[in-house]
Amino acid sequence: MPIRIIFRVTLISVGIALLLAALFFDMGTAGSSHPQAGVSATPDRLAEPTLPASPSQADRGAQVYWLSCLPCHGDVGQGLTEEFRTVYPPEDRNCWDSGCHGKRPYENGFTIPTQIAAIVGPGTLQKFPSAANLRGYIFATMPFWKPGSLTEEGSWQVTAFLLRANGLWNAREELNASNADQVRVGAGAASSTPGPGSADPYVNTAWPLVAGSALVLTLLFLFVFIRRQQAT
After folding, report:
1. pLDDT, tens digit, 9 for 90 and up, residues 93-146
2. Are residues 114 and 102 in contact, defined by beta-carbon separation less than 8 angstroms?
3. Upstream peptide bond of 194 is cis (omega within 30 degrees of 0)
4. CA–CA gap between residue 9 and residue 23 (Å, rounded)
5. More confident residue, 8 or 198
6. What is the pLDDT at residue 3?
7. C-alpha 211: how far from its chain's center?
8. Alpha helix locations (H) across 108-176?
9. Angle at the Cα of 68 (from 62 to 71), degrees rounded to 5?
């Protein structure tokens, strides 16, 4: 059989295989959980987080954070920023000027700081060597307006939530006194967040399958074509 015909058949086979691969990835992306612009409503940044069907310790910690930490530390741990204050109703955006949280607090009131640092993101929580130190600080001094009011369980839950939010804890096991000393938080802590090479796990895991399928399809097409040419 002429080499020219084999070459053309090979090109056609590779083209078919690449087309199928493109369709495969397009279907996978369409069915994935990637957000689509223009289809989701603006979320309520002050709403209580909902729990999944099987909540982890960190999932429950998200609710503790919402109840006791979010008002001062921000909805995503960014701190008491000017932008975050605009989320609150107008009468609550400068609460340190009022009698409750200002210079004249009434009974059970308190004076709120005007600057509160971020606790989620690069460079945060650096003064805590380990998860045990972070949890001890939270349990003894938080929330700001009523230190020591968190339960022991709640303090571990919110610590697990903060570690997960900072990529320092996989949250697949429970954080407690027996392992918290081994979880590094400050300088030198190893992050468990995915690196640039694993930004899309679907593509990373599907590519070998698609490449192998394309090769098998190409070889099969060539085999059938050559057999038919020989038969004629």
Report:
1. 888 787 888 888 888 788 888 889 899 999 999 999 999 999 999 999 999 989
2. no
3. no
4. 21
5. 8
6. 56
7. 30
8. 131-141, 152-165
9. 100
96 DSSP assignment: G
Stated as kind and residue range, the H or E segment containing 208 is: helix 201-231
Say which CATH topology domain 57-80+115-193 has: Cytochrome Bc1 Complex; Chain D, domain 2 (1.10.760)
- Burial (CB < 10 A; 0-12, 13-18, 19+), residue 175, is buried
Give residue 145's identity as a one-letter amino acid code: W
Q: Which residues contact 124 (CB under 8 A, 6 or more apart)?
A: 77, 117, 118, 166
133-162 b/e with 16+ CB inside 10 Å = b?
Answer: bbbeebbeebbbbeeeebeeebbbbbbbbb
pTM of the model: 0.64
- Summarize the confidence of residues 82-91 as an average pLDDT: 89
Question: Which two three-digit tokens encode residue 63?
Answer: 């609710």
Which burial class, exposed, middle or buried, applies to 61 when counting CB atoms under 10 A from its CB (0-12, 13-18, 19+)?
buried
What is the per-residue pLDDT across 4-58, written as a single tens digit (0 to 9) for each?
Answer: 555 565 656 656 655 555 555 454 444 444 444 455 577 899 999 999 999 999 9
* Domain parsing of the chain, residue ranges: 57-80+115-193, 201-232
- The one-letter amino acid code at 124 reads T
